[in-house]
Amino acid sequence: MKYLVFSAVCTSLAALAACGNGKSEPIEASHLEKTDGAVEISADGDFATNLQAALIEAQPGTTIRMPEGVFSLETGLSLDVDKVTLVGAGQDKTILDFTSQTGAGEGLLVTSDDVILTDFAIQNTKGDGIKSKGADRIIYRYLTVEWTGGPDEKNGAYGVYPVESDDVLIENVTVRGASDAGIYVGQSNNIIVRNSVAEYNVAGIEIENSIAADVYGNIARHNAGGILVFDLPDLPQVGGHSTRIYDNQIVANNTRNFAPAGNIVASVPSGTGLMIMANENVHVFDNTFTDNRSAHVLLAAYPEEVKDDRYNPLPRDIVVRDNSYSGGGNDPQGILQPLAMAVGGTLPQIVADGVTSWANNSEIPNLVIAEESSVGYLDLGIGRYPVDPMQVAPSTTRPKSDPVDEPAPVLLPQDKK
Length: 417
What we know:
Elements: H1 2-21, E1 32-35, E2 38-41, H2 47-57, E3 63-65, E4 69-72, E5 77-79, E6 85-87, E7 94-97, E8 108-110, E9 116-123, E10 130-133, E11 139-146, E12 158-163, E13 166-176, E14 181-186, E15 189-194, E16 197-199, E17 203-208, E18 211-216, E19 219-221, E20 225-230, E21 241-246, E22 249-251, E23 272-277, E24 280-285, E25 288-290, E26 295-300, E27 316-321, E28 324-326, H3 336-341, E29 350-352, E30 357-358, E31 361-362, E32 367-370, E33 377-379
Parallel strand pairs: 2-3, 3-6, 4-7, 5-8, 6-9, 7-9, 8-10, 9-11, 10-12, 11-13, 12-14, 13-15, 13-16, 14-17, 15-18, 16-19, 17-20, 18-21, 19-22, 20-23, 21-24, 22-25, 23-26, 24-27, 25-28, 26-29, 27-32, 29-33
Antiparallel strand pairs: 1-2, 30-31
Helix pairs in contact: 1-2
Organism: Hyphomonas pacifica
Protein name: Right handed beta helix domain-containing protein
Domain Right handed beta helix: 154-297
């Protein structure tokens, strides 16, 4: 695998050199100045070629420093060396601009362990901003990933995108404009997402098919959906569970849903604060929900036909408690619009779809709604998908439930706090 990655990178380097100065030239070591054990990338010369060369030639333990400035890149970067730190001069000072990127790849792909990415920005990638795959103990810190033209279905799908990894730390990250999810963690275990801002994405923060995640101290605002906790069928890891969503500000997530047609997030109603779909043991507490026009909290089953025998499409053992709510529910969108019309046009703070059956199975999900009596709840009474309007039976009665133990805090070996 590493040989294949190296070969692909070499091909990219040749293309970069040709684009940069009209001819292909070998990379000279003198282009890279080493200071205090770190590799310093000069702002002069062919920045993109020099940076990729440093990523290829790095040894475990290397720090690669990028200077202040805005640097145009036409080809994505890749890193496949363990224990490398890539650092800029600040997330508003070192900007890697991929506006002229050829192809549809990510801006930076990481496939190695114990990597730290910090203090730089990535803009306008054709594909994902930063993707890491199989990269254990990775740290995303003080980064900005954005599409500067605003919400657009042609923007890259994901801003920060770790998948198939253990021990993921994302903190002090800002993501704007992703056509799927700004901060997305998928098929991973032991995750912390904290103190970050996700705005003007389709989904602000998404935890998908993952186990043991803490999402706290974040601001999710002006997305179509603020925070999503999903589990989907037909993926290598199915059965996401044990997520805590707490101390977040989930505000005015009323941007139109601009996901390309066919994406699962295209079905998320604009104006959704938090959506939990087909996941288990999710605890939502001490958050502030403000002015999410469809519903602050939406609990839903996976709506499509399921052929994966490992998969349960219902949300189970969900706890919603001690949150603060204001505004919202006054302009439901998407599938919620006709359902809201059936109950007077507005929706309360917490809405469950009421699905209890799929295929030949049935189950009453254990939903613990432990909010003050002033917090409204609505079970739409759908029963099963696809929706049969004649069978819909809404109810405002909170469900009977059994206590659910809260998952233990996530502890990461690379987290020094």
